[in-house]
């Protein structure tokens, strides 16, 4: 049944990558999915699975190998399934860009939030959505997800578990819904995209450290937080909401900008965020001391913290953030270290179709 055909994908973006190997396997697909993915062409639909073999400390790769036969049998029919293993950080961006340009019907991230983040970034290039090379094409490439990461926080917003069989069922239905994507600009770098949560200061610093301890599973977030606390100082920011006037935002502990609701391995940090709302939820923690986290931890996990003193929540379409101390305030997006303030965050409403 399987025809393997290795070929290289041409680098499409500004980041020079090792050439990805794309394994193409001819497989069948259910009529539902076939119809949903490819509405107006007789060509066979193509699904590209972008697999991070090192996700969740190597478990993502092992899980993928285990479920691949099921992928083939469940999505059996008349589609083409391409499997592309990432060779290192940022590789998924290039694979995705090339897959979209070549007319893939769906690019499916297989791994954690970091892999999903890279795949989402691959949907854009030079500040614009990547387009199919075939200008006559009447369909767009959908985003899919098989969550197999350590935290897999974006999936939690939809109530999806780290359960590949459940994910394959979802993909097999082929239903698409539009989701918003956040954009981060500034710092003299090109636009950067996030689909889940971008965050600033203590949480971003904790995330930076937790990435080094992924081998400990979800415990990495606790270790990262402890390390982040060392030498931490609340800082005064100034912010500009929806291109209005600058406002002072004193003694910020952490500022979280959510398109999805969860980060840090299940913390419901932006509980009112909804990836199809056309808005971002900004939750700001101010003047927190280390013991506030211990006292309020359960509220942070269940999303009731926004009614607590020194926590505020607002809905925005854009927010610009500067720190007044110039002390190198950490910024992360979807759990990936991005750099330091200043940055501007804004929403691109309904810009991607997601298999949901
Ligand atoms: N072949 C590879 N070798 C090493 N690192 C890789 C490789 N492919 C991707 N990566 C990097 O691995 C990082 C983590 O991957 P991923 O998010 O899938 O798993 P995770 O960190 O365990 O899950 P989560 O982000 O949900 O906690 C990503 O930032 C990605 O850049």
UniProtKB/TrEMBL annotation:
KW Transcription regulation (keyword) present? no
Q: Which Pfam families match?
A: DAGK_cat, YegS_C
Q: Which GO terms describe its molecular function?
A: ATP binding; kinase activity
All residue ranges annotated as the DAGKc domain in the record: 42-188
- Fetch the SUPFAM superfamilies from UniProt: NAD kinase/diacylglycerol kinase-like
InterPro entries given in the database record:
ATP-NAD_kinase_N, Diacylglycerol/lipid_kinase, Diacylglycerol_kinase_cat_dom, Lipid_Phosphate_FormReg, NAD/diacylglycerol_kinase_sf, YegS/DAGK_C
| GO CC terms | membrane
GO annotation, biological process: phospholipid biosynthetic process; sphingolipid metabolic process
Gene3D superfamilies linked: 2.60.200.40, Probable inorganic polyphosphate/atp-NAD kinase, domain 1
Tell me which UniProt keywords the record has, alphabetically.
Answer: ATP-binding, Kinase, Nucleotide-binding, Transferase
Cross-referenced PANTHER family: SPHINGOSINE KINASE, SPHINGOSINE KINASE RELATED PROTEIN
Q: What is this protein called?
A: DAGKc domain-containing protein
Organism of origin is Kalanchoe fedtschenkoi (Lavender scallops)
């Amino acid at each position: 049944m399987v025809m393997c055909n290795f070929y290289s994908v041409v680098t499409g973006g500004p980041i020079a990558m090792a050439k990805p190997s794309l394994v193409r396997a001819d497989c069948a697909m259910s009529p539902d999915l076939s119809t949903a993915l490819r509405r107006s062409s007789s060509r066979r639909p193509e699904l590209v699975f972008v697999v991070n073999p090192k996700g969740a400390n190597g478990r993502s790769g092992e899980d993928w190998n285990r479920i691949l036969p099921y992928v083939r049998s469940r999505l059996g029919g008349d589609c083409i399934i391409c499997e592309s293993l990432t060779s290192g950080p940022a590789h998924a961006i290039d694979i995705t860009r090339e897959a979209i340009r070549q007319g893939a019907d769906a690019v499916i991230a297989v791994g954690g939030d970091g892999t999903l983040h890279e795949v989402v970034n691959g949907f854009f290039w030079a500040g614009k959505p990547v387009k199919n090379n075939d200008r006559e094409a009447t369909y767009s490439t959908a985003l899919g997800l098989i969550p197999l990461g350590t935290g897999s926080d974006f999936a939690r917003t939809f109530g999806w578990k780290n359960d590949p069989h459940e994910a394959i069922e979802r993909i097999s239905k082929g239903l698409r819904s539009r989701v918003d994507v956040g954009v981060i600009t500034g710092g003299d770098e090109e636009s950067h995209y996030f689909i889940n949560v971008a965050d600033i200061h203590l949480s971003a610093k904790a995330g930076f450290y937790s990435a080094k301890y992924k081998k400990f599973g979800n415990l990495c977030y606790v270790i990262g937080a402890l390390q982040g606390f060392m030498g931490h100082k609340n800082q005064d920011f100034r912010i500009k909401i929806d291109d209005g006037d600058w406002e002072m935002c004193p003694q910020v502990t952490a500022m979280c900008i959510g398109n999805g609701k969860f980060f840090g391995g299940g913390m419901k940090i932006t509980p009112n965020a909804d990836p199809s709302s056309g808005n971002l939820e900004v939750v700001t923690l101010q003047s927190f001391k280390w013991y506030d986290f211990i006292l309020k931890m359960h509220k942070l996990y269940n999303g009731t913290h926004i009614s607590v003193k020194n926590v505020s929540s607002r809905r925005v379409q854009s927010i610009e953030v500067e720190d007044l101390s110039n002390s190198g305030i950490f910024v992360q997006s979807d759990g990936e270290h991005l750099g330091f303030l200043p940055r501007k965050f804004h929403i691109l409403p309904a810009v991607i179709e997601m298999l949901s």
